[in-house]
Amino acid sequence: MSRLDSFIRRLEAQRACLELAADLIADLDGEVLELGLGNGRTYDHLRKLFPHRKIYVCERTVAAHPDCVPPSPLLMLGDMRETLPALHVRLAERVVLAHLDPGNGEIAASKALADQLSPLIVPLLHPDGVLVSEPAITADQLSALPLPDRIEPGRYNLYRRISHRPPP
Amino acid sequence: MSRLDSFIRRLEAQRACLELAADLIADLDGEVLELGLGNGRTYDHLRKLFPHRKIYVCERTVAAHPDCVPPSPLLMLGDMRETLPALHVRLAERVVLAHLDPGNGEIAASKALADQLSPLIVPLLHPDGVLVSEPAITADQLSALPLPDRIEPGRYNLYRRISHRPPP
Q1: Contact A147, A158 (CB under 8 A)
Q2: Could you give the ipTM of this predicted complex?
């Protein structure tokens, strides 16, 4: 498989996972969180999927297409290890869908960053919220969900926060 | 359609056009020319399609993944308006497949560059050679070929050089 093949499969997997996640959280009240804006293509897809939700975006510096730059009240610039804790006041348990794609192409670095970020992401997730992530994540409070049909295991990852609410 | 949808369709169109072009030139003797290396994904796909052909690459400066950097005898660094004429000695009528993807994301700029480059590319093409191009190209010596099945017109472009050889 060429790098072109692999890239196309990754993008198709990303899109399919986001669309499945959108179905899964359709009935939940809350916001969307994009972790890594990059060129803004995925953010644009999230805008199409969630026209009526606020989409918060964390990114170090903006390098996106001008059409894909979030409105400044929803754009958290800087290191996510600092901006995510700062979002806690506004977004604790409010995020119905978070998407993590550090996207620097370095698998080991992405995985290491994801491991640092996941304890900061989980508290923001709605108790039934979903995390879509390119690097696989191991966290006690996250349970892996089945991937969409025809998506190869490991190509993208889908998790739901495990609720620890007392039974009714 | 989101920018993510559009990007996936463009990559799928690119891959389908390259694979159709590979079939079309399978019986011709000659080399391959990649105009624009970028991150090297398409070059990697060309290597898979043409393991037994030389693949020449023109690019201003290399910014590709280290695995996707061509061997230096086949890598022409600099402005293509200068490197293409310099290749004429080696490649006149020898290129069975050229792929042009200036890929700066600016449609008008890509089209303008393609118009400047096409008179430099055509003389390198084998008399039955094929040009696969992201921007559409208008040139007397190029005839548009039908696109692969399921590829929308205009998403990618496929041309064959028109031979001006006397009839047998």
Answers
A1: yes
A2: 0.92
